[in-house]
Amino acid sequence: MTSDPIVQATAGAAPGARIGQPVDRIDGILKVTGRATYGYEHRIGRAPAHGCILGASIARGRILEIDVREAERAPGVILVMTHRNAPDQPEFGAAVTATVPEVFTRARPVLASERVRYHDEPVALVVAESFEEARHAARLIRLRYETEPGAFDPVAPDAEIYRPGRTNAGFPTDSEHGDFEGAFSVAPVQIDASYRTPFESHNPMEPHAAIAEWEGDRLTVHTATQTVANIQAGLASTLRVPPENIRIVSPFIGGGFGAKLILHPETICAALAARVLNRPVKVALTRQQMFANAGHRPAMRQRVRLGADRDGRLTAIGHEVLASTARFEEFAEQSAVPTRALYAAPNRRTTHRLIRLDTNRGEWMRAPGEASGLLALECAIDELAERLGLDPIALRIRNEPERDPELGVPFSSRNLVACMRVGAERFGWRDRPLRPGSRREGRWLIGYGMAAAIRGNYLGPGSARVAIDAAGQVTVQADMTDIGTGTYTILAQVAAERLGVPLDAIRVMLGDSRLPRTAGSGGSWGATSSATAVHNACLALRQRIATAAASHAASPLRGSNAIEAHFADGALRLGARSESLERLLARIAPEGLAAEGSAVRGETYRTYSQHAFGAHFAEVAVDIDSGEARLRRMLGVFAAGRILNPKTARSQLIGGMVWGVGAALMEETVLDRRHGHFVNHDLAEYHVPVHADIPDVDVMFVPEEDDKGNPLGAKGIGELGNCGAGAAVANAVYNATGVRVRDFPITLDKIF
Ligand code: MOS
């Protein structure tokens, strides 16, 4: 078994640092020196065998014949697993535990029948002594299929459209306020625009990978996940093993972006094969397999209708979303949900509808809902501003709501206007070309664009444990993950501040299902939720230390009032007397003290509408002949509560903004409409922005503290940078060219 994941702040990492300071990542040195161990790399006691998945070469149909004889005879091969010999698994969807949302608990059997539901769905697993041997043997498997016609066109005019029960994250499918159709039809100014967004794929640098090892009926899985509890629950259902018998270990993760929230085939394959062989087995998805097997953002058509009076006051807002989903499993991205809270208007309608395709299901992809939804809404608002001859910022300010326009409750805090004003000043918005297509520098047309950002602020229930030993060393423990976002660092900062100890006295242990349960990393709730649990655990630990210090026979502070405890500079002061924690603990608790704390979503999540806000500004240049659009500079200004660490926060937000640039200009997973496979399934052909595409991105924060969401006053930021960022770029392309492309991405062929 591998040693426990332990990350310790190094002395070089600004020992005095506290919440709100730009502390370097405490896990940074481990990562850049190769000592951080990822899912596929863990060394475990017994050498694992290597699995290689063979995917189906059809998208819908069934396997008629599968001949594995040659593969089984190939060098190094230990096992060839297909639907004919895979261990019995429950039907898809059967759930055995309810400790995480049902979608994560569903049994997801692999190699379970001759049915093929999507292209590249696993049809065989070859296990060999080396990966190369397994891969070679996988190619020797002969398959004969019966292919059935499938649905592969996300915009097919004759597709059957249906209404899902709920959208992702439990948001209602539709919302209706006032008389949208009536108000829109009589509005003096109308925008009625349809936008298309393609399939998009999140492809973390680290592909999905797992090492599975059984000891009797107990399973340990080293893997890469955003939420260990989800993988534990999904495996429990799929393997029919009690969740408490499954340990998930995931201390370092090479990026998640929503792709690592749910159980995927490589982990199930590894667990099944390891059980059959009674030997550890490791399996990773190849980069190409990631595209079909690790989810995607669904393709969409969105219709936005805006009715306004001649002063630009919105009277009607309508946002209708039509998205693709899988035939075998529903996923409804909540793309019209941000529209429910962004602008005031008495008459409103949002709807979500789905069409079934024979692809894998969609998944949560960074800023699920907002990334796609705001690409439509915030471009439509820009179109309205143009029609009215109004500054897009002035139009947005005119429609700033007093309260949440659909829920009717106040916002916990809402500093969108401040973000726009500060951003306009910093960016030089007043110098923008007022007439589209009017500014030229050599062969480049120059344009400015902006858009608003909104993202719900959430809190996921969970807990954390904080312990202090007799040497004054503090250990923070939670099953929370750090997917590259900086969790280790901010949790150390919170504990250091709350306990009044230097940062280098803190070590943080994460990503292990044996540690206190959290909601993991996802939905931008990771930092606030886990930091809240650590904050509360520290308060409980303080009380425990103070109480012992005031009463313990060996305590130099005995007899003091425990209520007047101050923790600072590594010492506890009770009233007038003070003692270092190290000396104190050695006397009163040589075995150390520990406490747990939890994060609970309170009533304020019902009585306030909670969101983070921001404003994006982009300048682009478009080649006058080729139509090539290039970002020149970009600014994001954000109001996201108290910023726990401006350095990691800035990195998160820049990353999100780069996603927006990709969505606006480059990203598209192309589905072959004849055979149903994703054609550009690698990072050579799936275009994402690279360094040369991102010249100058700036991030600013509007100071904000929000006491409604959590005791730290913080809000989530992971998705926020991506919310509206694409629309700012798209609006800049329009401003540069006078051409409004509503079919994303805005590639050069669509501009001129
Ligand atoms: Mo979030 S969809 O887990 O980036």
UniProtKB/TrEMBL annotation:
InterPro entries: Ald_Oxase/Xan_DH_a/b, Ald_Oxase/Xan_DH_a/b_sf, Ald_Oxase/xanthine_DH-like, AldOxase/xan_DH_MoCoBD1, AldOxase/xan_DH_MoCoBD2, AldOxase/xan_DH_Mopterin-bd_sf. This is Xanthine dehydrogenase family protein molybdopterin-binding subunit. Residues 157-177 are annotated as: Disordered. Residues 33-149 form the Aldehyde oxidase/xanthine dehydrogenase a/b hammerhead domain.
